[in-house]
User: What shape does this take?
Amino acid sequence: MTGNSFGTLFKITTCGESHGGAVGVIVDGCPSGIAISEQDIQIELDRRKPGQSSITSPRHESDSVHLLSGIFEGKTTGTPILLLAYNTDMRPEEYETLKNIYRPSHADFTYQMKYGRRDVYGSGRASARETLARVAAGAIAKKFLNQSLNIEIISYVEQVGELRAQIDHTTVTPVSIESNSIRCPDLDIANQMIRLIETIKNEGDSIGGVIKCVIRNVMPGLGEPVFDKLSADLGKAMLSINAVKGFEIGSGFSGVHLRGSQHNDAMAIKNGQPIFTTNHAGGTLGGISTGEDIYFRVAFKPVSTIRKQQKTINLQNEEVILEAEGRHDPCVLPRAVPIVDAMAALVIMDHYLRHQARQRV
Amino acid sequence: MTGNSFGTLFKITTCGESHGGAVGVIVDGCPSGIAISEQDIQIELDRRKPGQSSITSPRHESDSVHLLSGIFEGKTTGTPILLLAYNTDMRPEEYETLKNIYRPSHADFTYQMKYGRRDVYGSGRASARETLARVAAGAIAKKFLNQSLNIEIISYVEQVGELRAQIDHTTVTPVSIESNSIRCPDLDIANQMIRLIETIKNEGDSIGGVIKCVIRNVMPGLGEPVFDKLSADLGKAMLSINAVKGFEIGSGFSGVHLRGSQHNDAMAIKNGQPIFTTNHAGGTLGGISTGEDIYFRVAFKPVSTIRKQQKTINLQNEEVILEAEGRHDPCVLPRAVPIVDAMAALVIMDHYLRHQARQRV
Amino acid sequence: MTGNSFGTLFKITTCGESHGGAVGVIVDGCPSGIAISEQDIQIELDRRKPGQSSITSPRHESDSVHLLSGIFEGKTTGTPILLLAYNTDMRPEEYETLKNIYRPSHADFTYQMKYGRRDVYGSGRASARETLARVAAGAIAKKFLNQSLNIEIISYVEQVGELRAQIDHTTVTPVSIESNSIRCPDLDIANQMIRLIETIKNEGDSIGGVIKCVIRNVMPGLGEPVFDKLSADLGKAMLSINAVKGFEIGSGFSGVHLRGSQHNDAMAIKNGQPIFTTNHAGGTLGGISTGEDIYFRVAFKPVSTIRKQQKTINLQNEEVILEAEGRHDPCVLPRAVPIVDAMAALVIMDHYLRHQARQRV
Amino acid sequence: MTGNSFGTLFKITTCGESHGGAVGVIVDGCPSGIAISEQDIQIELDRRKPGQSSITSPRHESDSVHLLSGIFEGKTTGTPILLLAYNTDMRPEEYETLKNIYRPSHADFTYQMKYGRRDVYGSGRASARETLARVAAGAIAKKFLNQSLNIEIISYVEQVGELRAQIDHTTVTPVSIESNSIRCPDLDIANQMIRLIETIKNEGDSIGGVIKCVIRNVMPGLGEPVFDKLSADLGKAMLSINAVKGFEIGSGFSGVHLRGSQHNDAMAIKNGQPIFTTNHAGGTLGGISTGEDIYFRVAFKPVSTIRKQQKTINLQNEEVILEAEGRHDPCVLPRAVPIVDAMAALVIMDHYLRHQARQRV
Assistant: This one.
């Protein structure tokens, strides 16, 4: 109700500001008996943390996760799991000059309008640091789905600016994604992307792109009809990530160019089992999983923080010129890959539990 | 939890199948004292109903709404409002041959997988007839927003197949949308779209398109941070509509081609008030409304029901050829316009109440 | 959020006023494949309806239920079930003199304060007629629990005014409850209760009492820890019924008189299985079912509507004398028995689904 | 959904076990601009903490609260507030002998049945230590209600075993409650209660009692009709507290002995304003606040942990004799007073926000 929780039966509630005491999350609704360690979670956090490479923010957070409840003898007990990462490399002084200014395309103005006040350091709650909590919680879901149900979630950078990789998503592996700092499995395009980002970084500017996600081995039947379609919940999950401006599943916007006779996915029998001969649907029909790969694309706008001069206003309603400092990413894409993974895992996990609830005895 | 409710403080719960007794909705959480009549709702339902024109399904439902609770002396009492439309023009015999078949790109297979059984007539709950309930409920929200808060919600068809209108959304009026049967305010393109759909209808095929929606005069501050961003909730609302495969807000997927310095919306002072000099954001920052127009695009796939022969399978896992009968739309777009309006109204209404809850005394 | 829904995974949303078009309920979350007929529901409604006997209100509602969605070929499909009873015997003229008056101990004053207006006929939404929807929805849960899980829910009148039956709840049968019009399985006390109510009715007065409920064969493990304890959810369910002022489970208020060494329920092994040698707990520990009988008591205040003269005020803030007319129950207890059954069934059903959701694969 | 959250618009989610890393709570939905310090919360925690007096458990937790998010420059920002108390005085060795045993009237057996495993130290999540999080969160609500709305919440011990104080709840002050270690404002009875508890403690036994709570200055109109009646939500809140077995509001169970003509609260005009001449209702009608004092009673069973020998079973289904060690309270009542306060504050706060959401513009 207050926007800081996600999910229904596998429910997370997050908290924490960029420059407060900690960023945290309570994961509630995890089945008991799942082996979970801090290391399982740290692996995913390390993919999200700043300072990984030449194309990410140099902020030096270790983002060490602390697992403070819900685990007994290394396994979940079914009670809520508290995960915390304390903030360490805070530099509030970097924000002193920004206290009185609404940075363009940041949430400064809207938070001020909504709440009448705001935490001025490092974007407060609107900081991308908030996504740390998503990745931590998603790591639990991702592990459960993979180990108990063999469900695989694979996200990668498909496009940066005009550079779009032509990749068959059915062939992508986790190793190929992690083979380079931009997390694009096509190494040639990846290198072009990295150079482009470095150039833009030097210009004090920023750039956006597209992340593609594919989810494999989801059983048919997940997703609730009408409002909580699996596709709608995936869409909401992705659109809730900072900087996301678009979501398309299956054929998406390009499906508009096809006729029904081209777009419909024919069914056939293979080895005695129903199959779909194509997958324009992207793995859901009527909002419910078909058993085929679920795949979708997520558009990220260019990062709002740039070093170039910008026109804006201050809290006294005066026009001013902003020249930003601080430690920022020229392109959010490589660090957003584990966030997309995490949100996808949270949606699938939640719908798995919802589906299971109503199975007949 | 079960997928048939939408919203939190302004909450709707829908029910009803294509060929059952009725399609209905309970609207819960409406403030008291709002003048609402069956006629207010019927106006919107008439925009959605079949048989409006040469390019919509010939099913002859009057879709007359019945207002059965929650109103006293013409105004809301604050108690739940029940709206019903009884099903009248049902032809279950048209579906006898389909009982045993999974129609391609319909929800037949997934409902069967999820529930172990399904209502075989007219797609049951997965029928687009379900959206009647959304439009009825949305009509109440739309009226409240317009009359109490001066908020205007304007949806129109922007694209059908390859035909894309170039329309400045700030200039579109309700009258221009209703001036033609495809609901595209550019009359020239509208006529091309209508001819295209008629051709496709004659071929026994179908076609998709894009609806654009603009919401005007939303006060700054609506939307909850993190997961329930206004943009995320609008995205979920749209992606929950049958046949929707994509959603983008503001610059959307094309924002990927801009640098941060191009994409950021500068702020300035005009007549003593903060304004944004551009609106690539699409009216939200950090998921909270800025006060600028909220605008987004919604992609609809081509209608799944076509008369052309298709390969599929039956419940006995045998491959079969399907030749569909029944009464269907070659293009869902014109009837989907009031659905997009309705879902947008429900999201804004809900967030308005959520915002109001936490205002200081 | 708006108070007209109950449950989470087995969720009902009710609507309807005493003198509006209909009273209804959408039951959402029912597993598919359950045989449900209007007759299954009518049986329970007939136990609640007015005019059953000399000690109930003479209002002549048939309370015929209409099942308008969610059923296909006699069984649930997993989609929402709409149940409606149209209002027929409405006499708004009986309320003309009450329009301007706050009846003592009714919700007239509080609805007016909350909403600024209210439906003045027959208490509007605050009418006990609202409970019809609960009983209809509960009938589905009750049937499922009984037929699929062998869970039995048994409520009966234990006390009317000072008359309290001494009944071993483990021995009570549905037949013994239905053997008399007050629904007390001790026939001797039942007859005394009936005579007492008739006397009070003749005096134009009213009387309260206590309903006891026992739930048998609940598997261990239902109930969520901390806030959604099974005992807490049962308490809320009962306290949400009109006129209920108290709830106690197991030893309840009288448990205060015992020492821990007397109150603790020892465990032992019987036929190789864990048993409890006593059941002061009332079937839950830590809010989770033990497998023993769940039993609790519910206190109902005397009906607020009486024929005797009463002092009150009108909407112009003038003191007035009220002499009520209308058709009312001198004692709500016999008609409340199926309501207690229904609410208990809804709670158990919901917790059963919640428990099932997180069972390990 | 998972039982670890409470409230809707003012929502808390708690976590933590008796012997884990920490007990914590995220408070979500607090309006912005409220001055909150760790000290405000510590005051309430100190009333709940062990080791306060001769009649409470000697566990030596400082229960120091840490405020880790949601506050900026001493005031709330509208974002989630994380409160943590780290566990320090843990003695897992005290529980080594209990690992294999189901302690009578504890949740050991039911957690094992529900989850298949459990945290064996100090009752894990079922520990009364969980209530620390409730008190911490409630302190924020209590302060807001008191300072912004002048609402006063007053709980005190009315009864221990057979010793029942006759106290006019309208006269009780916070100072009189805190004047003695049992928190009963009648000093004479308080002393008798303390002596009784000391005797029982020496016997290795335990005892229960009743806490009464009165809430003053609640505006008329709080509470949602039908299921989320204010009375029902208060009941659920109280019944969710460990060891609570009964709840009654207003006349409660004793109201059964009155006729309607005696029980109905007449209305009159005083100083031009509507008043009630009696308050058998306990401050709500139809589940909505009347403006009169809200008052209710809460029954606590005797503490389950006693030193006396008890018969029970172990995990191997063998009958055993238990002789408990550990540090425990002979009577939970004095430490439960701030818990009742906290839960009452959370309910009123939540309903205040819910009411405010739908106020007309």
About this structure: The first helix of chain C runs from residue 38 to 48. DSSP finds eight helices and 19 strands in chain C.
